[in-house]
UniProtKB/TrEMBL annotation:
Residues 135-226 form the Acyl-CoA oxidase/dehydrogenase middle domain. Keywords: FAD, Flavoprotein, Oxidoreductase, Transit peptide. Residues 238-385 form the Acyl-CoA dehydrogenase/oxidase C-terminal domain. It holds the Pfam family Acyl-CoA_dh_1. One of its GO terms (molecular function) is fatty-acyl-CoA binding. Residues 20-131 form the Acyl-CoA dehydrogenase/oxidase N-terminal domain. Its cofactor is FAD. Belongs to the acyl-CoA dehydrogenase family. InterPro entries: Acyl-CoA_Oxase/DH_mid-dom (IPR006091), Acyl-CoA_Oxase/DH_mid-dom_sf (IPR046373), AcylCo_DH-like_C (IPR036250), AcylCo_DH/oxidase_C (IPR009075), AcylCoA_DH/ox_N (IPR013786), AcylCoA_DH/ox_N_sf (IPR037069), AcylCoA_DH/oxidase_NM_dom_sf (IPR009100), Glutaryl-CoA_DH_mitochondrial (IPR052033). Gene3D superfamilies: Acyl-CoA dehydrogenase/oxidase, N-terminal domain, Butyryl-CoA Dehydrogenase, subunit A, domain 2, Butyryl-CoA Dehydrogenase, subunit A, domain 3. One of its GO terms (biological process) is fatty acid beta-oxidation using acyl-CoA dehydrogenase. This is Glutaryl-CoA dehydrogenase.
Length: 392
């Protein structure tokens, strides 16, 4: 017996859990991804070159940049709508979602939450339109999971100017950015600085030879006695709580984004299995194939329900950072497992760029470990439920 197939998420009717306004935003982004990004993404991934500036302007016209922030030309949407936009962008490619989420949840969020009114007015309207691109300099070559050990230093001289020295690594948008939010050790704890990238002594080098996130610009930042005015410091952030709060915002988008990549893999695989014949029988009709597809459908549905629940909590204003860690840990881990399993169903065809599976799998290897590795999130959750820190 053959019946009309249901989309994997339709089995749980997850659309009924999304408001009409948020669905409309999601559908707009999905159409943009299908019409504008999908025809180009395989070439961008293969060449390792992506037109970030052009895409930033297009993202800005859609209202995707800083979309859940209020004022300064930002759309002021719900957190759930932002998550759904991330899901659709990452269904296209994780690198494309990273362009928007680093701009929005890291660079713009840092200025919005911790900056002065002058800093907000100077940067946020142009960042919202995509005319100005931002990056977020926290990670260093020797300090990823332990940002408190950073070696970048900022000292204030007698005239009040700040002098910034150090290096940052694995910085998305770094070598195309107009402004960098750079975190540094000072005599008064870790502080954030708004650094125009044309400042003398600042340089950014694009990292090549990546096997993951190839449709995204990743850079190393170098600051050699970069002199900044006294008002370059973010006035409302002292200590690691400032940058870590921004990371929590970025992790929220990843919870949804990873589900987008997994959904794209599973839908592609189901369509392939329905068309492919093996031993004179539809591949989708074999029990082993259906077992794989069923297990992946279950995990995809669970991940989507988790994302929507966390979106509701965030919109209500009482989501715990450890809950965000649950979502990031679970959804990235399961999305990667789905991408890998989907590849097995397609066999050799699954390793080509004719299908998105290996591309998504390679990207998700990075998504699994950035914005906090799986191990870091396990320890965050462990500390929440035991009250004991295992970080040291």
């Amino acid at each position: 017996m053959v019946s009309a197939p249901l989309a994997p998420l339709a089995l749980l009717d997850t659309d009924s859990l999304i408001s009409a306004e948020d669905r409309a935003i999601r559908d707009t982004v999905r159409s943009f991804v299908d019409d504008r990004l999908r025809p180009e993404i395989a070439d961008w991934y293969e060449t390792g070159e992506v037109p970030v500036r052009e895409l930033a302007l297009e993202f800005g016209k859609l209202g995707l940049l800083g979309m859940k922030l209020e004022g300064y030309g930002c759309a002021g949407t719900s957190a759930t709508a932002y998550g759904l936009a991330c899901m659709e962008l990452e269904a296209g490619d994780s690198g494309l979602r990273s362009i928007a989420s680093v701009q929005s949840s890291l660079a713009m969020q840092a200025i919005y939450a911790h900056g002065s009114e002058e800093q907000k007015d100077a940067w946020l309207p142009r960042m919202a339109t995509g005319e100005a691109i931002g990056c977020f300099g926290l990670t260093e070559p020797d300090f990823g999971s332990n940002p408190g050990g950073m070696r970048t230093r900022a000292r204030q001289d007698a005239g009040g100017d700040w002098v910034l020295t150090g290096n940052k690594m694995w910085i998305t948008n770094g070598s195309v950015a107009d402004v960098a939010v750079v975190w540094a050790q000072t005599e008064d704890k870790v502080r954030g600085f708004v650094v125009p990238t044309d400042t003398a002594g600042f340089s950014a080098t694009t990292i090549k030879h990546k096997m993951s996130l190839r449709a995204s610009v990743t850079s190393e930042l170098a600051m050699d006695d970069v002199r900044l005015p006294a008002d370059a410091v973010l006035p409302h952030a002292r200590g690691l709580a400032g940058p870590l709060s921004c990371l929590t915002e970025a992790r929220f988008g990843i919870i949804f984004g990873s589900i987008g990549a997994a959904r794209d893999c599973l839908e592609t695989t189901i369509a392939y299995a329905r068309e492919r014949e093996i031993f004179d029988k539809q591949l989708a009709a074999y029990q082993l194939t259906q077992a794989k597809l069923a297990d992946m459908t279950v995990e995809l549905g669970k991940g989507m329900l988790l994302a929507l629940h966390l979106g509701r909590l965030k919109d209500a204003g009482h989501v715990e950072p450890a809950a965000i860690s649950i979502g990031k840990l679970n959804n990235t881990r399961e999305a990667l497992a789905i991408a890998r399993e989907c590849r097995t169903v397609l066999g050799a065809a699954g390793i080509t760029l004719d299908y998105p599976l290996m591309r998504h799998a390679n990207n998700l290897e990075s998504v699994l470990t950035y914005e906090g590795t799986s191990e870091v999130h396990q320890l965050v959750i462990g500390q929440a439920v035991t009250g004991a820190s295992a970080f040291r």
